[in-house]
Amino acid sequence: MEPLDPHGMTFQVVATAPDCSARAGLLWTAHGVVETPAFMPVGTQGSIKALDHRRAQELGAQILLCNAYHLYLRPGIAVIEHFGGLHRFLGWFKPILTDSGGYQIFSLQQLRRISTEGVEFRSHIDGSLHFFTPERVIELQRVLGSDIMMVLDECPPYPAEHSMLEEAVRRTLLWAQRSLAAFRATGSRYGYRQLLFGIAQGGTSTALRRQCLEELCQWDFDGFAIGGLSVGEPTEAMYEMVALSTELMPPERPRYLMGVGTPENILTAIEYGVDLFDCVLPTRNARNGQLFTTRGKINIRNARWRFSDEPIDPALDHPVSRTVTLGYLRHLFLAGEITALVLATEHNLAFYHWLLATARRKIQDGSFRHWKRSFLERIRQTAVESS
Amino acid sequence: MEPLDPHGMTFQVVATAPDCSARAGLLWTAHGVVETPAFMPVGTQGSIKALDHRRAQELGAQILLCNAYHLYLRPGIAVIEHFGGLHRFLGWFKPILTDSGGYQIFSLQQLRRISTEGVEFRSHIDGSLHFFTPERVIELQRVLGSDIMMVLDECPPYPAEHSMLEEAVRRTLLWAQRSLAAFRATGSRYGYRQLLFGIAQGGTSTALRRQCLEELCQWDFDGFAIGGLSVGEPTEAMYEMVALSTELMPPERPRYLMGVGTPENILTAIEYGVDLFDCVLPTRNARNGQLFTTRGKINIRNARWRFSDEPIDPALDHPVSRTVTLGYLRHLFLAGEITALVLATEHNLAFYHWLLATARRKIQDGSFRHWKRSFLERIRQTAVESS
What we know:
Two copies of one chain form a homodimer. Chain A is of the alpha/beta class and 387 residues long. Chain A has 14 helices and 16 strands. Helix content of chain A is 44%, strand content 17%. In chain A, the strands form four sheets. Chain A has an eight-stranded parallel sheet. In chain A, strands 1-2-3 form a three-stranded antiparallel sheet. The A-B interface holds A 45-52, 54, 74-75, 79, 82-83, 88-91, 306-307, 309, 319-320, 323-325, 327-328, 330-332, 334-335, 337-343, 346 and B 45-52, 54, 74-75, 79, 82-83, 88-91, 306-307, 309, 319-320, 323-325, 327-328, 330-332, 334-335, 337-343, 346.
């Protein structure tokens, strides 16, 4: 396990772009340093869908996202406690961020009651009744032993009435404060430091986002997240909220845009000063046969690839991307082979990690904004040609 | 590509057991040497189910089995020809054996007509009508470019009338002879040598097996296979047929027992002098949650493993077997994660390759029979304790 930075620092900005808010940073956790901007593969239930996390680490994953709500329901917190925390349960000894599950609970179809105290919900697995409070969610994440814990927040749907957004902001702020108190009142179970990030809500309302962030950022969270976006709002509205949020966030703390997004979304958010990302897009779309490449998106089931002996993406320094051909991968998809899902997932994550690592390098050499523009033009251009 | 053995040899026995017919050998192919006894993972459609063949190679797979019938139907022979053969299509540059598809065709539910000329069948994918002759199947495998080609044979079900077995032997022998003639009349497409193995049938009839093998083994095949077993007959009958077959086969040619089997089946057949094996058992059972280990079989879904932080099999020198815990793997199975299938497959194949490599070492040091007995006793014992 790597020691914390000797100066006790959590986050350090090591380079900023000369012509935009993009920054390259280092985020210290008890299980190692994360070079930001960084993409966190989604391992909701403790596993990246269709990819052994050993492989994800080889292709550049620095930090894994898991979900406290899902792991609480299955395998159950007693199992993970017995193992001595999530790192040992998974066999992943690099950093882990656990989402609280707020987003999942508020997306549940099952009966739930929200009160100031907390949220009552039914398990999506067996319908059993559960009650989460901000304090309980901190406690769960203490048992999980994640390096970065997220507070319980209320994530309203899109679109939502202004009054509903207002109420969600009020509750999210109240819960954030209680989470921070619970965090301070409790200690690590396993002898290493855990960080706590606050989450801002406010939908696409400039006024509510501003109000939420102005209050949230006064509190001493280790990092700040932008929640409640990428839930169906127009892309321009999302960009506006991200730009507003990063302006209001303290520059010396890491910034995390939750659940976003496409390569274009991520590069734009980096331009506005976001440091951390997670999204199911590269893994979910891989399983549907959509590949992200440096030449744009590829629908691998398309008949045009039948005879193609081109590799998926020779520009990437990853064996699967450089050697598996489009024709072979298409065959595996049409034949219904599980290996098709594995190879596509491995490639898409290799692409996402390449994208973030390249963005970081371009920030450091001062060419990020220029590179971003020409890269996005190039992949859009290829997409037009392929369609 | 490794050169052929300088003496033009295909197979060499390098050690024989002092107290049974087990032997350790080297099988030279255009894509490298196979150390026998060896297990061939099944990659029917050009992919091991749930495991990237790059991983299989890392854990000890020396030769991959694919199926000419399946690949002929999908992606179609034109695709593989365009790629320059199966090795390039798959990106697997070690030896490949292709089964002719006889077994698959004779298992088809769809309408088929068998004549002396060949077999008419309907595709299991789209119902289209196809006709295979022994000559056509050699031609297909010339295009596939497999290192070891198998003749088209007739595999009757179990149980079968004696007259049906007789007819199958007659046809299988006729087809074997025509296959050999077609093999001699054609050349390699890609400039390297391909081998051709004959297949013996005869069900569990001693007389028919003997008759079939006595004729088949007079012909100059590069190796000989025992077909038509592991189709439902009692284990003892299978062992009897294997013992009889290996006695009749020329000692200087490799012997392949098709579609077998459990660890016990394989070790017993090795004792009788078999060199090559393939079976879906390690991969199929992995996907059903059954693990083969040096401590016996494990049903990973069993509640007894819920809190187990034991690794799957610490006796194996493979990262997945040594580090993935039973409790974690059980969780992935119950949660329906694709990674569960991948990890279980990876472990089961690691176990099978360990089993065969260990058998080979024990043959070389003269202790095979003793080791086999005590190993099987141990895994049977543990199975009793677990049940």
